[in-house]
Amino acid sequence: MMKLPRRYFLHLAAGAAALPAVPRIARAQAYPTRPVRIIVGFAAGSSPDTTARLVGQALSNRLGQQFVVENRPGAGTNIATEAVVRAPPDGYTLLWVTAVNAINATLYDKLNFIRDIEPVTAVVRLPNIMVVHPSIPAKSVPEFIAYAKANPGRINMAYSTSGGTDHLAGELFKILAGVDMVGVPYRGGGAALFTDLIAGQVQVNFPAMASSIGYIRGDKLRPLAVTTASRWEGLPEVPSVSEFIPGYDASSWHGVGLPKTTPAEIIDKLNHGINAALADPATKARLAELGGIALGGSAADFAKLIADETEKWAKVIRTANIKPE
């Protein structure tokens, strides 16, 4: 019998070891072969829903399958997140990840779904804005701080829900500015909150830009500052809070995640598709209309954003002793 060289067997062994990966890679290359669900933990018509549909349509156009938004609001987005955590890691169930997921890691005891989500990419950052009723004499952040310190416990700060981004933006302001304001929760926010704010029953709010811009442009609410680290191009004359309070930065952000152990090839394909969509001027323009700034980047970039935001909001939640309603 002919004696074969050792390198022949090594070559066979290496080839055999690679065989199981071939079908997996082939499946990832073919992905998606059927419709993909994007689970959103907010109601239809909300800012996360709108941006998810925008990106979903762009992915449908690029990848040749329908990316369908499925709204599962409730329990502070935990219902939606749990549905994705428990879904098969095959790339057909996506989570529309938001700042609320990072907040919930601390807000809810023994509930940290964010660690069970595989980051794909960040999509958009959306500033909140500090608005006051026109009866408040302050025309700037320093004037408001002075007014609040002269009237401790007499300014009512509205917010949509305990632990929401507008709530935490306000609590961070209270901590860094050293002012005492009374929190007034409105379940889900919306029309009731703005009705009372416009009526002067509450005096200050830190809402999402998209939900408040109409009231601002209609001169029903006075904007004092945007909450992101830099100014928003849609209202370039309005400063950022950080211009007066160094280190202040509070905003909403959205991104895409998958169940843990989803194949890296599928993550990469979605990451590439979303980044390509975000580079499209039409997508950027639409996000800007919604008050957003396109982000994009690698999965590692998004993982760092989630980790940093989780740590930041954990400190605020503990300092302010915030509990879920």
Write up what this structure looks like.
With 325 residues, the protein is an alpha/beta fold. It folds into 2 domains: 35-126 and 251-320, D-Maltodextrin-Binding Protein, domain 2 (3-Layer(aba) Sandwich); 129-243, Periplasmic binding protein-like II (D-Maltodextrin-Binding Protein, domain 2, 3-Layer(aba) Sandwich), CATH 3.40.190.10. The chain is 44% helix and 18% strand. It contains 12 helices and 11 strands. It has helices at 6-18, 21-30, 47-63, 78-85, 99-107, 141-150, 165-177, 191-199, 209-217, 264-278, 281-289, 299-320; strands at residues 36-40, 67-71, 93-98, 117-127, 129-132, 156-159, 182-185, 204-205, 222-226, 251-259, 293-294. Strands 2-1-3-10-4-11 form a 6-stranded mixed β-sheet, sandwiched between helices. Strands 8-5-9 form a 3-stranded antiparallel β-sheet, with helices on both faces. Helix 3 packs across helix 10, helix 5 crosses helix 12 and helix 7 (165-177) packs across helix 12. It is globular.
How many DSSP helices? Answer: 12
Order of helices and strands: HHEHEHEHEEHEHEHEHEEHHEH
Backbone structural class: alpha/beta
Strand order of the largest sheet: 2-1-3-10-4-11
Rounded mean pLDDT is 89
Taken as a percent bin, the fraction of beta residues is 15-25%
CATH superfamily of the largest domain: Bordetella uptake gene, domain 1
Given this structure, which CATH class of the largest domain is correct?
A: Alpha Beta
Summed up, the domain count is 2
Largest sheet: 6 strands, mixed
| First-residue to last-residue Cα separation | 79 Å
CATH-level-2 architecture of the largest domain: 3-Layer(aba) Sandwich
Shape: globular
